[in-house]
C-alpha cells in the first residue's frame, strides 16, 4: 500500500495556521488603530470586527478538517475543508476590498493569506484526486 497523503499540503496547513494567528492579531490591532486614528463610523466598526471573528471561527474547523483529511487520506474531510476555504476567501476579500478603511498593511496581509489559500486549495484538489483514484 502506498502513502497518498500530501506532505506539501500538510506543511502548508501548518504554516497557514501559524500565519493566521499573526494575521488575526495584526488585523485586530489595525482595526483598533483605525478606530482611534480615523473617524470610524460606529455602525461600521461592528461588521468589520464580526467578519474578522467569523473568519477566525471558520479557520479552526477548516484547518482541522484539512489536517485530518490529508493524514487519514479521506476525501470527505478534505472536501469540507475546501468548502470552508471558499468561505474564508470571501471573508478575506471583504477585508481586502470592502472594510471601512483599507491600509497598505491590510492589502499585504490579505494578499499573502489569499495566496496561501489558493495554493492550499490546489493541493487539496490534487490530494482529493489522488485519494479517489
From TrEMBL:
Main location (coarse class): other
GO BP annotations listed: non-motile cilium assembly
Entry's transmembrane regions: 12-33, 45-65, 77-96
GO (cellular component) term, any one: membrane
InterPro entries per record: Uncharacterised_TM-17
Record's bilayer topology term: Multi-pass membrane protein
Superkingdom classification of source: Eukaryota
Keywords attached to this entry: Cell projection, Membrane, Transmembrane, Transmembrane helix
Intracellular or extracellular location(s): Cell projection, Cilium; Membrane
PANTHER family the record matches: GEO07735P1-RELATED-RELATED, TRANSMEMBRANE PROTEIN 80
The name this protein goes by in its record: TMM80 protein
Amino acid at each position: 500500500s502506498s502513502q497518498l497523503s500530501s506532505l506539501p499540503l500538510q506543511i502548508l496547513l501548518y504554516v497557514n495556521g501559524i500565519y493566521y494567528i499573526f494575521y488575526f492579531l495584526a488585523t485586530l490591532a489595525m482595526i483598533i488603530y483605525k478606530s482611534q486614528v480615523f473617524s470610524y463610523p460606529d455602525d461600521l466598526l461592528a461588521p468589520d470586527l464580526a467578519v474578522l471573528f467569523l473568519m477566525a471561527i471558520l479557520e479552526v474547523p477548516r484547518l482541522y478538517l484539512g489536517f485530518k483529511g490529508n493524514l487519514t487520506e479521506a476525501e470527505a474531510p478534505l472536501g469540507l475543508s475546501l468548502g470552508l476555504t471558499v468561505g474564508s476567501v470571501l471573508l478575506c476579500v471583504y477585508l481586502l476590498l470592502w472594510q471601512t478603511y483599507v491600509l497598505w498593511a491590510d492589502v499585504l496581509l490579505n494578499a499573502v493569506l489569499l495566496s496561501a489559500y489558493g495554493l492550499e486549495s490546489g493541493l487539496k484538489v490534487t490530494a482529493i484526486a489522488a485519494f479517489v483514484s
